[in-house]
Amino acid sequence: MERKSSSEIRRMYLDFFKSKGHVVEPSASLVPQDDPTLLWINSGVATMKKYFDGSVVPDVPRLTSSQKSIRTNDIENVGHTARHHTLFEMLGNFSVGDYFKEEAIHWAWELLTSKEWFSMDPDKLFVTVYPKDQDAKKIWLETGIDPTHIVEVEDNFWDIGEGPSGPDSEIFYDRGESFNNLSDDDPENYPGGENERWLEIWNIVFSQFNHQPDGSYEPLPHKNIDTGMGLERVVSVFQDAPTNFETDLFLPIIHEVEDLSGKKYGVNQENDISFKVIADHARAITFAIGDGAIPSNEGRGYVIRRLLRRAVMHGKKLGINDAFLYKMVPVVGQIMKDYYPEVLKDKDYISKVVKSEEDRFSETLTDGIELLNSIIEETQTKKEKTISGVDAFRLFDTYGFPLELAKEYASDKGLDIDEEGFKAEMQKQKERARSARSTEKSMGVQSDLLTDLKTKSQYVGYNTLKVDDAVLEDVIQDGKLSDEVKVGEAQVLFSVTPFYAEMGGQVADQGEIRNQDGEVVAEVVDVQHAPNGQNLHTINALKPMQSGENYTLEVNRAFHLKVEKNHTATHLLDQALRDILGDHTQQAGSLVEPGYLRFDFTHFGSVTDQDLKRVEEIINEKIYDEIPVTTIETDIETGKKMGAIALFNDKYGKNVRVVSIGDYSREFCGGTHVKNTNEIGLFKIVSESGVGAGVRRIEAVTSQAALEFLNSEENLLKKTASLLKSAQLKDVPNKVEQMQAGSKDLTRRINQLEDKIAKSQAANIGDQLVEINGIRLIAANVQVSGMDQLRQMADDWKNKDQSDVLVLAAKIGEKANLIVAVKDDLIKKGIKAGDLIKAIAPKVNGGGGGRPNLAQAGGSNPENIPAALSEAASWLKGNA
């Protein structure tokens, strides 16, 4: 077996299955599309689910891919083990209702052992099979494998709940006795056990059962093959690497970190962990941001932030105190450029995002240290030796402050941290994240009702919106195939149709179906693609219909034309955003309705009003320029050479439609469009906002809807002018500025008066002085307009020796507000403002807290203020 690079191995795998009639599927974005069950694409099969559950029938039933994936359930193990990763590549070959065990097993053996391909020593290969799957065992024996190298394992059954499932067969590579980390009698010392000697390199799943909702298993209507070979693992075999990290997928990053840190990999075990964490996390962060995810406090963004901060902290352990992770981005790009050239192309943008997040973490780390010092001081004051898990998790969750670093700081002060309590809080957060995710099943139960519909149906809606002789071919009603349509809802297929099926964000056409007598017999309410690609109409049947008969299908023209205008406008918007914001901007979703358009796009940071104005101006300029909109059908490679933009997450067949708006915009698109930009009439942005980490949304209107929007805005302006008694609209801004200036002056005068009132009351609160157990207390109900006045009175109190404890209460609006101040010498005796405020706040149905010398609270029951003040005296009696 010759040494091979990771790029050679990836290409060889894909070429092998290409030679067996498989179509190479490009690696999809890590950000799942239309799948609320997944946070990340976490396997090769995750992108094939629609094929396996039968919701879509692929053009070719044999597929192969090298799919980048992220799994985050074992982040803490990364760096500590030989093969745990957050980002990895999964090589796979898939059969959707085509070949099965015979071919899958023989081809696997051929790829692994053939001199033309991987050329592995057969004596080093072992396989496991499900005990009840004797068919698989028999086929393995046909390959010529040593019979003693086949191990039956009860766990070899792939099942994720409802949907496709079945036995699987795992393939292991024997790395030799030198890798044996277990005693001979250890129960895990066998191929398939938890050990270092036998390395799992491939898993072949024979998907042959439907796991039903009631827990039973039935034969699948269409059996599938799903395999997964971890690229990192198999590369370690070819490169004879002790772990995955000593391969060409990771070493260039590790060498870069060596240069930055001045430390060497392979010398110190603790340092090696940090090298591995940085190398792993740098890859995951780079690819995740490249696919449009952005660091944030939730979902995918939170994962990126956590990985980045973990890597930065390990950099500090190696002595790297400045931002450095962003320098790893081009290194990752160089490693992966053979199959993922987009990383190098976008390296400047990705580096910018990483550098910004590193700088942000540096600031929050300082804030975290301040909070930790406060927690340490409070713990020591209570004469306790352990920082609570709740406080440690608050540090982690709020500031990304790692538990390991908190332990080091605490240890320097002679304190421990309640790690079990920390883990309990972490578990609560994971449960919250799970509950926030969709409860939909990850893969549906496969049904052959729609999958078996092979009727040819021609879509002609690009050229006409009416068809006179469409034959009703298939009818599905009440969950069954039928020859006739009864009154009510049904799904139908026609030999030919002008109705557009929802796709690419464009909503489906609506319209009517008439019989040969011209009577309206049904309303078309929705159109979707059936698994085999036909336009499947959902209709509301007003009269019975019969399969085999001819019908007239007519699309609602006004509805359709409005959608066309908005769809073409999204193409202009897409390109205008690239022009103004940069080429890193990618479409992240769209919706094209007749009344408006919605366009989601990736962008780091907000979009300024000036940029939005320029985008709007560019689009309207293109509309006024009356640019022809043309469409041609070609193959995907020709389309790319033409410069057509392909949506990263979309799958394209052999033939594609390229929509060109002159030389300004060119995209792959199956939607319907205007013939000339002048048909759009007018474009107006209605709103721009953030809808997720690194994803912005623009909503806009065109044509008549744009005019109506502008008229509405003008009416609002006229109403405002009337209220301001402004004779002309152009004078409105000046009138508003005058009102604002007057309002500021009034506010300033009010504040001055309130300060005088507060000072007057502060001078009189001494009349409320009482002495309790030798402690002087002032507890007073005062009249102020806000908490600022209460705080001002507390500040004045500090400068005077009026009492040892101050408690002030005020009804502000419909709320009760409390403030407590305690002198420093009393704090040393254990009397703290925070403790006192917690004791009295419940009296006004409230809560609060603060520092030992100053605390405040609010409550919903101001009528009980006297009781709260009385409670202050009682508390001092019991605690002084």
From TrEMBL:
EC number: 6.1.1.7
GO cellular component, one term: cytosol
Cofactor detail note: Binds 1 zinc ion per subunit.
Residues bound to Zn(2+): H567, H571, C669, H673
Keyword ATP-binding: yes
Main localization of the protein described in the UniProt heading: cytoplasm
Top enzyme category: ligase
Highest taxon above the source species: Bacteria
Keyword Iron-sulfur: no
PROSITE patterns assigned: AA_TRNA_LIGASE_II_ALA (PS50860)
Catalytic activity entry: tRNA(Ala) + L-alanine + ATP = L-alanyl-tRNA(Ala) + AMP + diphosphate
SMART domains named in the record: tRNA_SAD
UniProt KW keywords: Aminoacyl-tRNA synthetase, ATP-binding, Coiled coil, Cytoplasm, Ligase, Metal-binding, Nucleotide-binding, Protein biosynthesis, RNA-binding, tRNA-binding, Zinc
GO MF annotation, one: ATP binding
Subcellular location per the Swiss-Prot or TrEMBL entry: Cytoplasm
One GO biological process term: alanyl-tRNA aminoacylation
Residue stretches making up the Alanyl-transfer RNA synthetases family profile domain: 4-712
Cofactor (UniProt): Zn(2+)
Coiled coil (UniProt feature): 736-763
SUPFAM superfamilies: Class II aaRS and biotin synthetases, Putative anticodon-binding domain of alanyl-tRNA synthetase (AlaRS), ThrRS/AlaRS common domain, Translation proteins
Domain notes: Consists of three domains; the N-terminal catalytic domain, the editing domain and the C-terminal C-Ala domain. The editing domain removes incorrectly charged amino acids, while the C-Ala domain, along with tRNA(Ala), serves as a bridge to cooperatively bring together the editing and aminoacylation centers thus stimulating deacylation of misacylated tRNAs.
Its biological purpose: Catalyzes the attachment of alanine to tRNA(Ala) in a two-step reaction: alanine is first activated by ATP to form Ala-AMP and then transferred to the acceptor end of tRNA(Ala). Also edits incorrectly charged Ser-tRNA(Ala) and Gly-tRNA(Ala) via its editing domain.
UniProt family annotation: Belongs to the class-II aminoacyl-tRNA synthetase family.
UniProt protein name: Alanine--tRNA ligase
Organism, scientific name: Pediococcus stilesii
